[in-house]
Amino acid sequence: MKIRKILALTLALTALSAIALAEFDASKTISVVSREEGSGTRGAFVELTGVLVDDVDNTYLEASISNSTNLVLTTVAGNDAAVGYASLSSVLHNDTVKALKVEGVEASTENILDGSYKIARPFNVVTNGESENPLVVDFLSFILSQEGQAVVADDGLVSGATAETPGYQAAALSGSLTVGGSTSVAPVMEILAEAYMALNPDVLVEVQSTGSSAGVTGALDGTYDIGMASRELKDSEVEKGALGIVIGTDGIAVVVNLANPLDDITIQQVHQVFTGEVTTWAELNQ
Amino acid sequence: MRGLFLASACVCILAVGVICFFLIANGLPFFRQSSLIDFISGTQWAPLRNIFGILPMIVGSFVITLGALLLGAPIGVLTAIMMTRFASNKAVRLMKPAVALLAGIPSVVYGFFGLMLLVPFTRNTLGGDGLSIFVASVLLAIMILPTIIQTSEAAIRAVPESYYEGSLALGATHEASVFRAVVPSARSGILSGIVLGLGRAIGETTAVLMVAGNQARLPSGILQGVRTLTVNVLLEMGYAADLHRESLIATGLVLFVLVMAVNFLFSFINRRRVLQ
Question: pTM value?
């Protein structure tokens, strides 16, 4: 009898908590999810939203740090009260999180192209000066060709291709390339690599995701043949010889959990959330 | 044959020697430019502005490892005692492979398990963000269980049966004989198992990265997130340059010194007991 009573009570509590959990609790503290300092996404995001002031990154100290685009999305998808930022091209392929509209503008490639969606940054491929490796030169020319830019546009980036962009001719090269850097650029780079390897069967292109700053450092010290960065190159990097070529423009989406009723956010609010000025969801809506 | 054994031992010593040398040679130059005291006691970590204070990370590593040991060591040792002295053969046949399987699971899978199950559970029942010291400690406790169990088990099995039989002959019960005669004799092996577990816990990076929140500041409760020394190195090594890179190697040096200190402490405590 006692066990039955305990069981019944437990079931009732579980049912109640399930109902309680089903509703979004606006008094919850906002769980801010950020990227590590070397992330290109973070670098671009803090600059474009004003969280970066006079070279000082004022990101909320209580923000948890995830070290890749995918980890940010997984963390936000698993926590009702979470908010984070990630590459738009990755978010478009991921329906476990919701991308907020910024200042009423939806995060989409069309809106980046016409400038109404403000949070956008270039995807750069980085080499140590002009590369003399014929394989690097050929792969880069593929990325910038009609075929390469079609892949880029397909993946959710804004491509800079025009009618004058040349087509690509496979040159029957052989060898291997290591491309490393931004976790935001890596997905589209992997698709580009696959397409390139289909046209050049004797070439092996390997893509590694280690972060934008790691990509630039790697390109400069020879660890990678080509580096990837999801932000503009810094002056100090250009001084050391880094050469960046823009392969597309990507938006940064502000993402929240699917259970969050919020749909629209202003840049001011984004700034308040990510610097820790506002700490609960209820405060934000005022 | 002896030559082969000698060569293997030399490779081992050489490996430790090279790592020591690398850490000291590349980490010490950092202390020529920044003071050791400021480094270890500084509470702000802002490497891009040349502020290097790793106290939050030292506290993070310490607290998470302590939590893991407080949870994992008693469970591990008691499981080992149960498996060797109290369990039936059928139960042992089930438990041994289970423990071995636990040992073989990769860290990233543990991290994923923590992120998908432990973090939401903590968030919903205990409050806070979920990404916390508590979850990291629980996860690490599970990860170090196989290490502690297997070493403790071997140590307990190594105790001569005569100790147990003698104790029974003197009239003690089965439980008393195990806990008062067998286990104390296996003490040094059990302690070394715990130290191995501590070493694993303090060095764990991937799993902790996914569940601990990684905030570079001093925590104020076990439901808050924290960054450990190892995660700090992982997050920044890829892009660190010059002084920043040296500071990370210096962090590795601090970690190395900490682990060596713990090892010496334990062997010192052990040696005194053995002499008695």
Answer: 0.83
